[in-house]
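hiii, so i know i said id send this last week but things got crazy w the move. better late than never?? heres the sequnce for the chain we talked about at the cafe, plus the structure i predicted for it. fair warning i was half asleep when i ran it
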Amino acid sequence: MFTPWNIMSRSSSPELENNPVHLMIRRNKTTIILETSESSSVLELKKMIEAILKVKPKDQQLFLVYVNESSLNKYMKLSDHVLLSDYGLEPLSAKVTNPAIVGLTLRQKDGSFEHLEIAPYSDPEFAALPEIMDDMKVMNLYETKDL
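okay and structure toks below
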């Protein structure tokens, strides 16, 4: 039985094992955060997405959008049997604090794939917070009160 946490590479290269790669899979307003191995293939990544979205790998297209702290001018379509490390998705370029962004498109009913669209995150405007008093001001308030 397939589960997302048991997909790790079956690669024989021990230096690639257990090196986590952190990814944000983005499609429209959907964001999926995944951790996998740099020795995983794109197909294995699609199987992880399948476990979450219930969409078969053949009905998914993945594109590299952002890696190594920079956006790509042209999105790179990812091929199923290529390793993530071959696309530069490595622990140093896809960190938990700055994951690589992978765009996702799905096959439509007519057989074509939708255009890649990633909705920006909202930027809420917070009400101005009251000024925080420092310790000296608080102490002065208590000293001037008659008890």
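btw Strands lie at 20-27, 30-37, 60-67, 70-77, 100-106. thought thatd interest u
miss u guys!!
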